[in-house]
Amino acid sequence: MPIRLLLCDDHNMVREGLRALLSEDEEIDIVSEAADGQAAVRLAQEMRPDVVLMDLRMPELDGIAATRAIRTTCPGTHVVVLTTFLDERQVRDAMDAGACGYLLKDILKHELLEAIHAACEGRTSLHPDAQAMLMRLRREDDLFAQLTPRETDVLRLIAAGRSNKEIGQELRLTEGTVKGYVSAVFVKMRVDDRTQAALLAVKHGL
Question: What is the pTM of this model?
Answer without folding.
Answer: 0.71
